[in-house]
Amino acid sequence: MAILIDETKRVLVQGITGREGQARTRLMREYGTNVVGGVTPGKGGQSVMGVPVFNTPREAAEALGPIDISVLFVPAAGVKDAAIAAFDAGVKLTVLVPDRVPVWDAMNIAAAARANGAKFLGPNTLGVLSPGRGVVGMIGGRAESARQWFKPGVPAGVGIISRSGGMASSTGYYLGQAGVRISTIAHIGGDAVLGIRIPEAALMFEADPQTEAIVIFGEIGSTQEEELAGLIRDRKVTKPVIAYIGGKAAREGTRFSHAGAIIEGGRGTHAGKVTALRDAGATVVDAFGELPGAVVDILRNNKGKSLMSESEKNAVWHTAVTQIEPNRVAVRGYDIADLIGKASFGSAVHLILTGSLPSAAIGRLMDGILVASIDHGATPPSALAARTVASTGASLSSAVAAGIMSINRHHGGAIEDCARQLKAIADRAAKSNIAMGEAATQHLAAMKEAGERMPGFGHRYHTNDPRTSRLFALALEAGVDGSHMKAARAVEECFAVAKKPLPMNVDGAIGAILADIGLNPVVFNGIFMIARTPGLVAHVVEEQSREKPMRRIDPVNHGYDGPPPRTL
Ligand SMILES: CC(C)(COP(=O)(O)OP(=O)(O)OC[C@H]1O[C@@H](n2cnc3c(N)ncnc32)[C@H](O)[C@@H]1OP(=O)(O)O)[C@@H](O)C(=O)NCCC(=O)NCCS
After folding, report:
1. Domains contained in the chain, number
2. What is the pTM of this model?
3. I want to staple 220 with a disulfide (CB 3.0 to 4.6 A). Which of 28, 31, 228, 247 is the partner?
4. Nearest-CA neighbor of 131 among 202, 76, 205, 185?
5. Catalytic member of 258, 350, 443, 484
């Protein structure tokens, strides 16, 4: 777990078409954040890097479904209206990046959040980042650097709460250098009126099973650190708290960097905060440079799981696929010994490609897809290529690789291409508020006009592909029947009334089903390769054991002499 942001959260970007909105959308997506849509009034219908833009958060929520977090990159004067519009659309967390938001507006936002049971981070926040899982806002800059600096809190990590934007990243960086994993870094913002403050963020970390300790970069002004001390005293925060408080040298009445960092009437002094926290049992370091060492000491004393081993600390690059330790192999976090015998191959393929184990029914469907594509006789280009290379005396690996290399746009590639066209049809139906059949008719007409063929329909051999109907039936049994499958049926109906009926082929069916399961189309061709490899191995081994080297392989004229039809 982590707090506020992880890979499951559906994120909206308000101000997505602006300079910062566009740049940050790219960076957030590169880091893995699930950005589902954007909003800029008057720019609905456009798209930014493939992300659809809407005129209002409500329109976005109506088209895309519920949105978890909205991050704002709109000019300060528009923040109040934009945040309230997000709350009205059912968004439960807004991240208010802009600075110079008027205090009165921030108070109005707070009232609207309360009325809607929602929360907000900021204003004037760099946002929140959960290493390896997602970022909302601007923490970490380039995805590559953020991956390098902040190590995921798996199996555990420390939570960072910072009142300074720059020091949020720096604290994460120096903790990483000291070998400490991080669950989430939250910059709460520097303004006088804030949404989520230190005490509330600390309670979230307290409730997060993945967080082992809480690190605070505090500063003078406000009563946030004193309130945290109260929570520690009352045993509402029981995890170790390690803090640094900036602004020791500031005198009363001097504003120290942020609007919220001001000592007034003796409240919010450096000494007062340090004493309150220490009296409550927290560790407070005197210099920022002592913070990482203090965190490491406390974790070590507690046998903390947030500490990295030496080899992990020295790693120059990372993978999130499989973790290897002496006597332990974990695929996407699951011990391979547990998976063996419990997870089917289809489920394991789903796991390794998406990071999550599917339900039993989806696992069966994945198995069905892999079985459906295992082989299609000796005539497809991949089998012919593999056999041809095998006949030269090449090794098994070279011959199978030759077969794999022939899987491209026109062989196996229709799975991905078809899924993309089906999505375009479903989007057209949703956007124009028309029936799927009409959207399919319009889309096919536009493709015909442009001289393009609809991939995934028609077959050079079968008129009724036996794999297609079986896979669709299996998908329905698994409760899968989303917009892609509906669009596929609509296309089939359009073609059925045309001069030459073009039934859906196995590529089209698999593309529609995989897209409705929610897999990323970039792996579709890969799934076909995974499925077809056993068939290629069988062809290569047969070629090498039965046939003469360098024979002339007739691509069509061959017979079958294997077992007669049998039943299961
Ligand atoms: C918010 C901020 C990032 C915007 O800067 P910007 O991207 O350069 O501004 P732009 O004018 O290019 O873009 C703003 C976009 O919001 C859009 N917008 C305005 N009101 C909007 C609303 N209610 N909803 C959605 N979008 C809106 C604008 O139309 C504009 O898009 P456009 O250019 O396509 O018309 C900037 O004002 C800011 O506050 N920067 C400092 C942030 C910071 O450092 N915070 C953390 C401190 S630690």
Report:
1. 3
2. 0.73
3. 247
4. 185
5. 258
